[in-house]
Write a structure and sequence with these properties.
It is found in: Cytoplasm. There is one protein chain. By secondary structure, this protein is mostly helical. The chain folds into three domains: 11-117; 178-269; 272-383, no CATH class. The chain is 87% helix and 1% strand. The chain has 13 helices and two strands. It has helices at residues 2-120, 122-155, 157-175, 181-194, 198-214, 216-224, 227-236, 242-259, 277-290, 295-311, 313-319, 322-348, 355-383, and strands at residues 271-272, 275-276. Strands 1-2 form a two-stranded antiparallel ribbon. Strand 1 and strand 2 form a beta hairpin. Helix 8 (242-259) packs parallel to helix 10 (295-311), helix 9 (277-290) crosses helix 11 and helix 12 (322-348) packs antiparallel against helix 13. It is elongated and about 175 Å long.
Length: 384
């Protein structure tokens, strides 16, 4: 029984193994069939896509080749045109020169005939004689009037006294060289650079204001001495008291007299009268903002900064900064409000205001508006 059971089990195992082998063979066959069935459509798709890519490449190369051919053809045509034009010009240059010569001769002949007809006409000669006689009469009248004016001035006591005063002043200046304007200017510059007392500074600034207003040479000496920096430092130390306001006005007038000369304020320089443009603009804007209720100082400062901005690019560049524009705009808004209120009150008749003060405010407003417009224009040009 044991042997029979063992044989039965071995026979069953062999049958199972045979069945498993048959199943494996069937699975492999199925896999081969599936892979082949998938391979055939994939190969067909590959060949189709490859053919499409080849067609696209062919079309693209054809288009690119046509474009290059057209560009090459246009370049060749241009070169040929330039070469033919040059050859034609060389061949026809002699003819062109001859034509221009003939035309010039014809123009000269026409001009000569016109001049001959004009000079030969009696009307032209009469007009020329009348013009010369008129000029001669004007010269004679001027000489005669000059002689008569000198004779009248010689008899006038007032003019005689003025002449005597001028002669006496010239004699005093000749005897005392320290009374001459140049020497007084140099002495005032020394005092301004070294003085400690307010009275000395006041006298020196009065002398400098007079000399810079009357003499361009004194203005040049002021710039050469570097006194503008000292003057700006002094301006920073001034307060709102009456003596300081007078000195501040004198200092601003000195700067105005110096900067009115164009050769001392070049358009592209950043140094103005020996002082930096940034420092000068900063101090002037401080004065405009802090002394807007003091017309004697405010108007001079506004006019000075507006004039410098219109003539000097360094000052205009500093005025383009947002801080300066903000401060100037604030002052302009306040001035416009004040002038509007005063104009309304004066028109209604509640209170009589000084019209000259109102005119000064309006003039300052116009100058500030011009300054802001110039700055906006410069900023717009700089952005482009």
């Amino acid at each position: 029984a044991f042997v029979r059971s063992t044989q039965a089990r071995s026979q069953l195992m062999s049958e199972i193994l045979l069945h498993i082998q048959a199943l494996n063979l069937k699975c492999r066959a199925i896999l081969h069939i599936q892979s082949f069935s998938r391979m055939v459509p994939a190969i067909m798709r590959f060949h189709h896509q490859r053919q499409a890519v080849l067609v696209l490449q062919t079309r693209w190369r054809a288009v690119f080749g046509c474009v290059r051919y057209r560009e090459t053809l246009e370049g060749i045509v241009r070169v040929q045109a330039v070469a033919r034009r040059h050859l034609t010009y060389r061949a026809c240059r002699g003819l062109l020169v001859e034509q221009e010569t003939v035309r010039c001769e014809a123009r000269r002949d026409r001009a000569a005939r016109v001049i001959q007809r004009a000079l030969g006409s009696e009307q032209f000669m009469a007009w020329l004689r009348g013009k010369r006689e008129g000029q001669a009469a004007v010269v004679v009248q001027a000489r005669l009037r000059g002689v008569q004016a000198r004779q009248r001035s010689a008899k006038s006591r007032r003019i005689h006294r003025v002449r005597l005063k001028i002669a006496a002043a010239a004699e005093r200046a000749r005897r005392s060289p320290e009374l001459r304007l140049g020497n007084k200017t140099r002495e005032a510059l020394k005092i301004l650079m070294k003085a400690r007392m307010l009275s000395q500074v006041s006298k020196a600034m009065q002398v400098l204001e007079t000399s810079t207003r009357l003499s361009p040479v004194c203005c040049a000496s002021f710039c050469a001495a570097g006194a503008a920096g000292t003057l700006l430092t002094f301006i920073r130390m001034c307060n709102r008291s009456l003596p300081h306001l007078q000195l501040l006005r004198l200092a601003l007038l000195i700067l105005k007299n110096v900067t009115r000369l164009h050769h001392l304020v070049p358009p592209g320089m950043e140094m103005i009268g020996g002082a930096k443009a940034g420092k000068l603009v900063e101090i002037l804007v401080d004065i405009v903002q802090n002394f807007r209720d003091k017309e004697s100082v405010f108007v001079v400062a506004v006019g000075l900064v507006s004039d410098l901005a219109s003539r000097n690019r360094g000052v205009l560049t500093v005025c383009r900064s947002p801080e300066v524009r903000r401060r100037v705009t604030g002052v302009l808004v306040i001035l416009e409000r004040v002038t509007r209120v005063r104009t309304r009150k004066s028109s209604v008749g509640h209170k009589k205001h000084d019209t000259s003060e109102l005119d000064i405010k309006l003039k300052a407003c116009l100058q500030l508006q011009e300054l802001l417009a110039l700055v906006e224009k410069e900023a717009l040009c700089g952005s482009y």
